[in-house]
Amino acid sequence: MSITEREVEQAKASGGRTVQLDPPGTESLRLGPYHDPVTGQEFRLPASPSHIMWYMTGRKHGNKPLMYGYASEELRAKWLETKKNLVGPEQGYMREVKEKLAEAEADATNQLLVVVQQLQKQVSELQAQMSGVVPAQERTVVEEKEEEAPIEPKQLALFD
Fold this sequence. Notes:
Strand order of the largest sheet: 2-1-3
Oligomer: single chain
Number of helices: 4
Helix content: 40-55%
């Protein structure tokens, strides 16, 4: 996909901001920058005249009017601080979860290695026994008896 002259001009006019390029086939739907005048949060929403009117009057987006254009530097800084306070604890929690998952994965891997080593040892012992190098050990089979549970008087009363 090649970059068009319009996209290069858009990138130069952005003043160092990140420019979101439209995917091919969306020429009919133009998106524009909006911001919440209270919080400073920025959005990319449809920018047709009817959409601009709807967003600026607050009929969409939860009855909170949005302003067309980018937020001022003060509002942007306010939003970034708010976003950091909202997302910061979650990122710390996610870091802890990832560490615990890594520890659990390492423990599971270690346990699997121990099981594999035990199985390899058993296989080598069986091969030695089958080849006659090592005499087979006699195994005693213990039969387990099922014991009947005593019947309680309350249970007998159910059948009367």
